[in-house]
Fold these 2 entries.
Entry 1:
Amino acid sequence: SKYPDKKLAILTCMDTRLLELLPAALGIKNGDAKIIKNAGGVIVHPYGSVVRSLLVGILEVGVEEVRVIGHTDCGVEKLVERGIDQQHIDIVRHSGIDLERWLGGFESVESSVHETVRRLKEHPLMPKNVRISGFIMDSATGELTRVEE
Ligand code: ZN
């Protein structure tokens, strides 16, 4: 049905390595959870599509828990280093875009997950009884580590 069986929503990275690792590590199957993916599993904008999808999941289909799951060796951090012309980067910066933030580039996956959890918890439209937590998944083994607040 459209209602997730575990009342759980997951925000995670689109990395294909997680496709089988993630459900296995969490012990979930099709229909158990709403899974929202983008590059890095980050919130680019507080009123963008990720937050909107999570809020719709909470308000419309009964999601009670949100887990933000980053992963080791996440490619998003490397995008800027991949030979993009510095001039182009400067143009984007000068047009008022925080490039690192937009790409989800944080110093570490841990700080990225931490920041995403914080943004969700502090979001003005987030109901206070929704449980929000962050994890990092080992991209090779699927092992999950909780990110402390
Ligand atoms: Zn990733």
Entry 2:
Amino acid sequence: MTDCLFCKMVTGAIKPDVVFEDANVLAFRDINPQAPVHILVIPKQHVATLNDLDNPALAGDLVLATLAIAKQEGLAEDGYRVNINCNKKGGQEVYHLHLHLLGGRQMTWPPG
Ligand code: 5GP
Ligand code: ZN
């Protein structure tokens, strides 16, 4: 989608701080980090929300990439959080599916 911010990161029109890339997945650092490590993991193909994810292989790719990045960032042993905001009440602001990988500090529960 030409008017989608995260699609522009996939095409290279906007260049984020990339930490991981493979055929189907791109991951980059969040511009407004909410933890010492805050990375967004996205499908390269445009999927607007979690509701629209219907490809089991892509779902697996996203989750496995996220845990590989958590290990790469040294978060695996201490722990980390993976979050997906879906639609308005889920707090989604960018309508291209993304997993938030958060770590490097103690997380609290319940989330806001
Ligand atoms: P959402 O609220 O949709 O789950 O999360 C959107 C995330 O995208 C936010 O954490 C926000 O900081 C991040 N974000 C928004 N614009 C940009 C940008 O231009 N570059 C990067 N790297 N992250 C962005
Ligand atoms: Zn998109």
